[in-house]
Amino acid sequence: MAEVKRVQIPRVKLGSQGFEVSKLGFGCMSLNGTCNSPLSGDEGVSIIKDAFNKGITFFDTADMYGANANEVLVGKDTQHCVSSHQAGLALKHLPREKVQLATKFGVARWEPPHLSVKGTPEYVCSCCEASLKRLDVEYIDLYYQHQVDTSIPIEETALHPRFRRENLEKNKNLYTRVENLAKKHRCTPTQLALAWFLHQGNNVVPIPGKTKIKNLDDNIGSVKVKLTEEDL
User: Fold this and answer.
1) Per CATH, which fold does 11-224 belong to?
2) Could you report the per-residue pLDDT of 6-17, keeping only the tens digit for each?
């Protein structure tokens, strides 16, 4: 496993307005159990404070995560968590001016496998105001569209096709290749995957979610994995 102690996480600028973030971000979707078992408040606060102390300053959430609950628990302190089973990060625990907070709009309804999107100006404005209130902040550093509103029926769109049942056998061969390359670089497959993203240019910032400190450290270790052109 790549060493994670004293890893200096680079800073990069997104877009053309000088918006600077940590090269490795933190995806908050898993904090309140969107796709996993929810964390306790103490566990959530612990992992996010640990991430910040290790150089991760870019935190990403969305209004659709946990039916709006994720923004509440990201924005408020643990005493105001919407559930005892949900983790809370208060920006009040961290210096707001040193945190880059991103949230998203665009998904009007998500009941897997059904997804509906909306992008009218009125809807965007109402979503932004609601996010500011839930996050309990005066401004959002990065506000962007989660899903583009198109006229294509959702039934015609395959969401994450690589992970559909019919592709599982093909994925086994891919994983073997990834595992062998990870062994070559003496890192974990997760670190290798993140390292690939980190080598795609300074305008690409991965935002992996994590619920355990050991996985956070594993992710941070990806910063030290150097891939060759042949690897890529």
Assistant:
1) TIM Barrel (3.20.20)
2) 689 999 999 888
